[in-house]
Amino acid sequence: MNNVVLIGRLTKDPELRYIPNTGTAVSTFTLAVDKGLSREKKSEMELKNQPTADFINIVVWGKVAENCANFLTKGKLVGVSGRIQTRNYEAKDGTRRYITEVVANSVEFLEWGDNANKQSTPSNDDDDFFNGIDGFHPTDNDDIPF
């Protein structure tokens, strides 16, 4: 079983490129995922200038990649599900390089807009914004069973 679920913040804006000959979109970004340390351990690590988060490379393909590049920015909170992939290559200096990354099949935008403290669920004023994104459809609160 190879299944990964992460929640973290983008360390920089996603990079979007297109594969030559096929035109397939691919986006890459890095997530800072909190290590879930106790308050004391986190303070201790911060005093020693040690990271309190893991930095995970994410790769996204297709329309999801385009949506990530168009709507995500540095610092936004996202949820990612996918699989771990490892690969290697020979660098120009002749050394073997190894890469471990998450190939995402789903990316959930957990924050919208410029305000990081803004509610993660969009208001009805945002309906027109979401109509232009594949997979997003406005709902009526009367349709929610609770």
Automatic annotation (TrEMBL):
Keywords: DNA-binding
Disordered: region residues: 114-146
SUPFAM superfamilies: Nucleic acid-binding proteins
Quaternary structure and partners: Homotetramer.
InterPro entries: NA-bd_OB-fold, Primosome_PriB/ssb, ssDNA-bd
HAMAP family: SSB (MF_00984)
Organism, scientific name: Soehngenia longivitae
GO terms for MF: single-stranded DNA binding
Lineage: Bacteria, Bacillati, Bacillota, Tissierellia, Tissierellales
Single GO BP term: DNA replication
Gene3D superfamilies cross-referenced by the UniProt entry: Nucleic acid-binding proteins
GO cellular component: nucleoid
UniProt entry tagged with the keyword DNA-binding: yes
UniProt-recorded name of the protein: Single-stranded DNA-binding protein
